[in-house]
Amino acid sequence: MSDGPLIVQSDKTLLLEIDHELAAEARAAIAPFAELERAPEHVHTYRVTPLALWNARAAGHDAEQVVDAFVRYSRYAVPQPLLVDIVDTMARYGRLQLVKSPAHGLLLVSLDRAVLTEVMRHKKIRPMLGEMIDADTVIVHGSERGRLKQELLKVGWPAEDLAGYVDGEAHPITLDFQTNPWELRDYQEMAAGSFWDGGSGVIVLPCGAGKTMVGAAAMAKAGATTLILVTNTVAGRQWKRELIARTSLTEEEIGEYSGERKEVRPVTIATYQVITRRTKGEYKHLELFDSRDWGLVIYDEVHLLPAPVFRMTADLQSRRRLGLTATLVREDGREGDVFSLIGPKRYDAPWKDIEAQGWIAPAECIEVRVTLTENERMIYATSEPENRYKHCATARTKVAVVEAIVARHPGAPTLVIGAYLDQLEELGADLDAPVIQGSTRNKEREELFDKFRRGEISTLVVSKVANFSIDLPEASVAIQVSGTFGSRQEEAQRLGRLLRPKHDGGQAHFYSVVARDTLDSEYAAHRQRFLAEQGYAYRIVDADDLLGPAIGGSAAE
To answer: Is residue 37 a contact partner of residue 13, using CB atoms and an 8 Å limit?
Structure first.
């Protein structure tokens, strides 16, 4: 027995004592291969999953490092069967390899003959394979590269894809450090290098850490036509502005493929929405993937990738693919498809590390607990289960609390964020603030965002359209009133709106206004899990204390 901060249990759960002096060091050591499950005040629970171990393996970590982390930080002896299981699980990655042969095309090669025999007997895998070349090698139908990786992952034998990539149509792209002087940060350079060395995969960086710059660096390495997929038109236009400012690309070389325009150019920026739009039951716009000989495909906010894009990505395995995200958490549980179709995690920077380097703003997270009125409680109690969350999340009692928070930060650039339009309209009227929601025209959205950036508007009320890829560097206060149930990825995105460094070096304040004794507080606890993993602690205060000194120190902070 030692005095370590970690308790390693035989069911693959890890308990981390947060107040221990080595807790931060231990968290960093286990982060590449363990996923946070619960994060109450004193002891956080992590789980070691096969996918997390395979992601670690693909990123260059080996079983020895994992075992060493356990042994070094564990308070008690680590269960020996668990260590054996981890070594065995990590050893499953890469025992099957996909390679290219000049004579036979795509091949599945086994470093373990019994594994190949096992997977060839699988009814979903067998039709993807052709004839045997020898006892360890079988031909793979060229179009099945992606789907084969998906199925092999499902049966627990993730293949290492060494089949390489086509260069695509060449198009010169260089980073321009002179016109608007800037530098590629160390971690951005490392992220782009890790992606390029691996060929395809996902880069995980906090919001505000410059994922677009990593994309630009990858484009410069590829020097080829590039298709960039983004969440919405506003995000696409931000990408275009950044690429024009920071690379050799001109406006004429970058096309927008959205609901408003259909331009296909050497660099084309398309929205997920238009790509997945059906016409007479068909995804007509998926043809964009075949419209040019793309050398690189970039998936922004890869955790939001829609199912039809996964299907098309299965056919794009010979193209280099870069996924960018602040969190690999997917609420639909399709992290395995991201791993097999986009690629494994190539680089992951903990949020607090980037904050410590001064590249993102420090943030204070506060949950404000609101007590509903008797009438609101009764409406909630008697509502149908499917309506219950909406009733507590949109309770009228929250409005006065939001007004009080806004008053605590006079003049601070503030975002009020919610999921229900009636609630947002009401808040917009009470705060005398513009409302941006799904039906707001792109031109109007961009004008309002620009006024907010310039300081002409201090408060914006926004729906989930502002969760993703919107660059509002000076936003320093966010007030979340309702969300998509217990979505961890949404919580990460919303805090991310605040993390661009402030010109005065100030702190960001992230408030969640939550109705106590309801589903609202249950969902809030679930949403906060991801941020707790990144080292952010929530303080809980009572709404009745709001006008006292309990929240955020003085308003002048």
So the answer is: yes
Among residues 389, 424, 354, the alpha carbon closest in space to that of 187 is found at: 354
Residue-level pLDDT at 521: 86
Q: CA 43 to CA 14: how far, in whole Å?
A: 10
* Out of 169-173, 370-374, 484-488, 511-515, least confident range: 484-488
d(CA 378, CA 363): 36
Q: Estimate the share of the chain in helix, then strand, then coil, as percent rounded to the nearest 5.
A: 40, 20, 40
454: left (phi over 0), alpha (psi -120 to 50) or beta: alpha
pLDDT tens, residue by residue, 39-73: 666 888 888 999 999 988 988 889 999 999 999 99
What is the residue-wise DSSP string for 414-446? Answer: EEEE-S-HHHHHHHHHHHT--EE-TTS-HHHHH
**256: phi then psi, degrees, rounded to nearest 5:** -110, 125
Inform me whether the pLDDT recorded for 552 exceeds 50: no
pLDDT digits (tens, 9 = 90+) for 64-102: 999 999 999 999 999 999 999 999 999 999 999 999 999
State how far the Cα of 235 lies from the Cα of 471, in Å rounded to an integer.
Answer: 8
Task: Please report the DSSP string for 368-409 in residue order.
Answer: EEEPPPHHHHHHHHHS-HHHHHHHHHT-THHHHHHHHHHHHS
As a residue count, the chain comes to 557
Write down the residue that tokens 């940060």 correspond to. 185
Band (pLDDT 50/70/90 cuts) for residue 145 is very high
Asked if 220 and 174 touch (Cβ cutoff 8 Å), the reply is: yes
- CA dihedral 279→282→286→292, nearest 10 degrees, is -90
Q: What is the pLDDT of residues 165-205, one digit of tens each?
A: 999 999 999 999 998 899 999 999 999 999 999 889 999 88
CA atoms lying within 13 Å on the CB side of residue 518: 30
Which three-class secondary structure state does DSSP give residue 225?
Answer: coil
Burial class (CB in 10 A: 0-12, 13-18, 19+), 296: buried
- Coil, strand, or helix at residue 135? coil
Per-residue confidence (pLDDT) for residue 556, from 0 to 100: 34
Work out the number of other CB atoms within 10 angstroms of the CB of residue 184: 19
Alpha-carbon gap, residue 417 to 427, rounded angstroms: 10
Q: With contact defined as beta carbons under 8 Å apart, do 285 and 277 qualify?
A: yes
**Mean pLDDT, rounded, of the chain:** 87
Cα 194 to chain centroid, rounded: 18
Alpha-helical (H) ranges within 161-285 are 186-198, 211-222, 233-246, 272-275
Q: Specify which residues 256 forms β-bridges with.
A: 269
* Tens of pLDDT, residues 299-323: 998 887 888 888 888 888 889 999 9
Asked if 237 and 446 touch (Cβ cutoff 8 Å), the reply is yes
Q: Are 155 and 125 in contact (CB under 8 A)?
A: yes
What is the number of other CB atoms lying within 10 angstroms of the CB of residue 196? 17
Distance CA 166, CA 320 (A): 8
Q: Which pTM does this prediction carry? A: 0.80
Cβ-in-10-Å burial (0-12, 13-18, 19+) of 223 comes to middle
How does strand 96-101 pair with strand 43-47? unpaired
